[in-house]
Structure formats: C-alpha cells, structure tokens
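Box 3.1 — From sequence to structure: Aspartate-semialdehyde dehydrogenase
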Amino acid sequence: MSSGRSEGPTVAIVGATGAVGSVMIEIMNARETVPWGEIKLIASPRSAGKRIDVRGVEHTVVALSPEAFDDVDIAMFDVPDELSARWAPVAVERGAVAVDNSGAFRMDPEVPLVVPEVNAHRVSERPKGIIANPNCTTLSMMAALGELHREFGLRELVVSSYQAASGSGQEGIDRLRAEIEAVAGKQVGDRAGDVAEALVAAGLSEETPFKAPLALNVVPWCGSRKEDGWTSEELKVRNESRKILGIPDLKVSATCVRVPVVTTHSLAVHATFDREVSVAQAHRVFEGASSVVLRDDPDGPDFPTPAGVVGGEPTYVGRVRQAVDFPNTLDFFVCGDNLRKGAALNTYEIAETLASEG
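Predicted structure (token representation):
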C-alpha cells in the first residue's frame, strides 16, 4: 500500500496509545488514501517517545502540551472527559479544530454533535472551534435512524440497548474475561449468589464496573445514577438523539443493559414516524444507505449479532417489522462496533469531512 499522503492539513491524534486511539490508527492504515499532509501522535508524558507505524512511516509519540498543537489543523481527542475539557480549548487557541470523542462537550449548545451521515453540515457551525462525537450507544443506531427520519419524519423512539463490556473501557473487558474464566467448566447454579460465590472463590473482588456479576447474566444498569432512577447512558440516548437529528421535542425512552459481550453494542429500536412506513420501504431506505448493511431474512434466518459484525465499520440492521398495534411504527434490531463506528471511526469521519471542506 502506498502512503497515500497529500499536501493536506496536519491532523493530530490525542490519546494515540489508548484503546480508541489505537483503533483510529488501524482505520487510518486501512484507508487507500488519506487527506493528511502530516500526522502527529500525542499522548501522556509516560507514553512520549514510543514509536508507532502509521501508513508505513514510523512516528514518535509526543507528550501532551500546548506546544504539541503548534501547526496542527485538526486535533482528534480520544481521552477522558476531564482531559478533553482542559486540552481541547488549548488546541483551539493554538489554531486547531478539536474533534472530541469524550462527553465533555456533547450537550454544549455551542458545540455541534455530529454524525456525518446525518448532519455533516453542522461541522461548519462551531463557535468554540470544537466538534463533539456522540456516545457509542447513540451512534450505533443513528445512521439507520437518520435515513428513516429523512424519509418519514421521526416522532417517538423507545430503545433497549444491549451494551458490551468494552463500553466500560479496558477495565470492563478485563473483568468480563476474568469472570468467564472463573465460571467456565464449573457447575454454577442459576442464582446470582452462585455466580458471586464462584467469582469470590476465583479471587475476584466484589468490586465491579457492572454493579453485579456479568458472566451468565445481564445487568440493567449502564453509567451513573441520575434523577428519577434514570442512568447517564439512558439520558445520553435521549438528549443526543434530539440534538443530532435536530428534533428538540423528540419523545425518547431508553433502557440500557450491560450484556456479557466483549465488543459491539446492540439495540432494539421501536420508532414511530409522522408518515406511514412499511417494511419494504424501510428495506429500500437501508439498502440505499452507504453506511448501513441490511441483514434481514427471517426465513434464513439472517440477522446481525455482535459476534457476527465486530470489527466492521457499517451499522448492521435486521429483524425489521411493522408494529401492528402501533400506527406508523417500525421495530428493528441494530448492531454496531462500539470501538470503531461508535468511537474512533465517527471521530475520524468528522475530521475527513472537515478536511474535504478545507
């Protein structure tokens, strides 16, 4: 593969050695061509000096500092909220546009929340010089919903998410794998206490990012507790969907569930529209969308699953049904890799959109 480099803008990956930053580099390496004149890798001081191959060229990671953003045109941030909140404005002060993958700026009214397939025009509306990337759960359904909204006008949305352990970061991945190892091959009973006893016997702490054992279980809790019993993940689905689609009064109800899957979020979507919509019409819309893959053969049966789509870049849709008891309503199932499209890829595609607009 040729380097594919051009005399284009300079792009920086902030958090280049982290989980999402590493996926960002994989995406960049897989592209036939890229619009970047220069690529800069930025990380914490402890990662400074590491050498990473990007498109056949070895790059040295530099420490996060104000000077690291000199001559950078677009800075993609893949770091925790508190770091983005501190450093994205610094990048802007140094002349860069910041594309942030954290939750620090998503609901700021002066920061556009962008999914290029849905609202690419918003990248030019950035009074703070910052563009936000949505939460990976919202992103998993947004390409499909955006296409349907354009055709039929979305009015109400009820969502149940089935979120992978990687949504809790490396800690979540490590914990799930340790729990699976602890119960594998054991005669574990059906009660929650039986699994908990097996985990304690394996030397695993009762402290877990999932609030309850995840192996052989599902946990109806993702994120932190918010008002009236909702969780932060559930409110993100509501608030971010409204902002991305430009429907401030969209009725949304979400229940977010953690499931024993390493990577790829799934969602069961119940969507009501202003106009009548059939399964055949929805199929045509999905088939015409470049970033949506339709897998919907009930006789096959063929439908998306996390294990079947992990590592893929599109949104995968199946189980499309017309809700007989609910007018103008569709039910369907969506899967999307939460580390690729749900984080790294969408951030990268926002940066590509910026580059294409000069």
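Summary of the box: Residues 118 and 146 are 5 Å apart (CA to CA).
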